[in-house]
Design goal:
Blueprint (H helix, E strand, L loop, with lengths): L1 H4 L3 H9 L4 H19 L6 H10 L6 H10 L38 E11 L2 E10 L5 E7 L4 H15 L6 E4 L3 H4 L1 H10 L2 E4 L9 H15 L7 H17 L11 H8 L1
Parallel strand pairs: 1-4, 4-5
Antiparallel strand pairs: 1-2, 2-3
Helix pairs in contact: 3-4, 4-5
Length: about 270
């Protein structure tokens, strides 16, 4: 082996007997802390969130050092790209403008946003409707079911209302899908005193906040896995959504969770 690497036997044994430097010992201890943070995030955090989590725990370390140690130890965030298998139905109702753009958000429960995403289970598609507080990015209501219809969106809305009890000045924003423009949904919105808001025609980025959530959720717990039964994915959702709200660090919230961000402003 010494001949292969072009070193002397004496040099090799001297290297073997040399004690590790203080920097090496520190890196070893730091790597263990990084592994613990990464494991607590369910394998979802990349180096920026790991770095922030360490700082919040009193560990003074540079972001580049964290990234370097993660690379050296093969610690990676989950990464995936969402593929949209079916476009959302679009219905252009000029009577429902995008009212969220008129508001300056200063606290929770001013604007909620809602949308539906597809989840493949056992070879067929199921649907997840989510309601999110736009200010804090907290998921305040959701529903999961076999059909993409107004029953699904109403259940998510009612779950959110039951948990949050918002005032009658709330704005609820969605895309222009029929699941949100149906008569039953409009009637419930009116009954609650909530103002309805919808994307401008052709402006799919008007609902970017919840699209970002779907991307994060699917990257964290959906892509790279297969689900054969509805109960399997329900279990994942019931476990992930509280984690997302209470523990997952959010880069746009200065690396705190939605729940912590709400506590800071109330």
């Amino acid at each position: 082996m010494c001949r292969v690497y072009g070193v002397t036997r004496a040099g090799y044994y001297a290297w073997r007997s040399r004690e590790r430097s203080e920097r090496e010992r520190q890196n070893e201890a730091l790597a263990e802390r990084i592994k613990a943070v990464h494991a607590e995030s369910r394998g979802t955090y990349g180096s920026p969130r790991v770095h922030q989590a360490l700082r919040q725990r009193g560990c003074s370390v540079g972001k580049h050092r964290v990234a370097r140690l993660m690379r050296a130890h093969g610690i990676k965030a989950r990464v995936a790209t969402i593929r949209y298998t079916s476009p959302s139905l679009q219905r252009y109702y000029s009577g429902i403008p995008n009212r969220q753009l008129e508001l300056e958000l200063k606290q929770p429960d001013q604007v909620w946003v809602g949308d539906i995403t597809y989840l493949k289970v056992g070879g067929i598609y199921r649907y997840l409707a989510v309601v999110m507080d736009k200010y804090s990015r907290r998921v305040v209501g959701w529903s999961y079911g076999p059909r993409k219809d107004v029953k699904l969106t109403l259940k998510a809305l009612n779950n959110a209302v039951r948990g949050r009890r918002p005032g009658r000045d709330l704005v609820f924003h969605t895309d222009r899908g029929i699941e949100y423009a149906a008569g039953a949904f409009k009637e419930r919105i009116a009954e609650l005193g909530i103002t309805q808001s919808m994307n401008r025609p052709g402006k799919v980025t008007d609902n970017a906040f919840i699209e970002s959530f779907f991307h994060s959720m699917k990257t964290d717990v959906y892509h790279g896995r297969s689900f054969d039964e509805d109960e399997e994915i329900r279990t994942v959702l019931k476990d992930y959504l509280p984690f997302y709200n209470r523990a997952r660090l959010h880069s746009s919230l200065s690396y705190v969770s939605p729940a912590t961000f709400e506590r800071q402003v109330r």
